[in-house]
Each structure stands twice: as structure tokens, then as C-alpha cells.
User: Which sequence fits this backbone?
């Protein structure tokens, strides 16, 4: 799960801006499903798949400019492997933040990212795939 990574970033059951970034606010919690977006009316809370399946292994970690800033490794996943990246430019220097995780809900399918990558909006890309170890920083799913 991502919770140990966000505890490392001092985001245990709360929200905060990220160190060195005035624009991005991150939230993490573990006391209820989707508790990090509970007060957002513009976000539809995803539903958990009603059909339990055999888990797959997904890479998990948070990276900035290709460097891990959290513990990284494989996690068991009852869903799909997922990644999201945010690319931004500060003082004419490009920076990229990436999160690799498991999507145990319907986010991947609701965004049309089953076994593919999509540009969600300028500077934001996402990928999802549904086989063991299908997505790592060195291995991006391509159709």
C-alpha cells in the first residue's frame, strides 16, 4: 500500500503541500475508503470490484526525476497495476513526479486505461495494466 510512503512524507491521515512544491497538495488516510477525497464534490469515489480475483504483483513507489523518494518494491494487488506522472517546469527546468501503485477500484477502467497509457491532460499521464509486473519505472505498458 502507499500508506508507508505517505507517512514518510508526513502525510499520515492528513493533507499538506509537498516539500519544494507550492502547487501540489497531497492527502493520505487509512480510516475509511476514499477518505482522502471525502470532501470533494468534483470527484466520483470509485467502487471496489465485486468479483475477487487472484492477485497480481504491482510495482509500488514514489519517484521524483527518476529517483525513488519512498520505499519501492512489488505489492500484491487485487486489481490493476497503475502509474500516474506529473511533469512540470520550474525556472526552465523540467521535473517529473511518478507514483506506481495498485488500483483496487475502478479508476483504470473508468478512465479507459485498461492495458494502456493515456495523456490525461497537459503534463499528466497515466498507465494501467492487468498482468504480473507489467508496469515499472523501466517498463511502461505499450499496446
Assistant:
Amino acid at each position: 500500500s502507499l500508506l508507508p510512503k505517505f507517512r514518510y512524507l508526513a502525510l499520515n491521515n492528513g493533507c499538506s503541500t509537498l516539500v519544494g512544491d507550492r502547487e501540489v497538495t497531497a492527502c493520505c488516510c487509512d480510516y475509511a475508503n476514499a477518505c482522502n477525497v471525502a470532501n470533494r464534490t468534483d470527484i466520483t469515489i470509485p467502487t471496489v470490484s465485486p468479483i475477487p480475483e487472484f492477485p497480481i504483483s504491482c510495482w509500488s513507489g514514489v519517484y521524483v526525476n527518476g529517483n525513488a523518494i519512498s520505499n519501492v518494491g512489488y505489492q500484491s494487488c487485487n486489481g490493476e497495476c497503475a502509474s500516474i506522472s506529473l511533469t512540470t517546469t520550474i525556472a526552465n527546468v523540467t521535473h517529473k513526479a511518478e507514483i506506481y501503485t495498485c488500483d483496487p477500484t475502478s479508476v483504470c477502467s473508468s478512465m479507459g486505461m485498461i492495458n494502456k497509457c493515456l495523456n490525461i491532460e497537459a503534463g499528466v499521464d497515466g498507465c494501467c495494466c492487468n498482468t504480473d509486473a507489467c508496469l515499472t519505472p523501466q517498463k511502461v505498458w505499450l499496446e
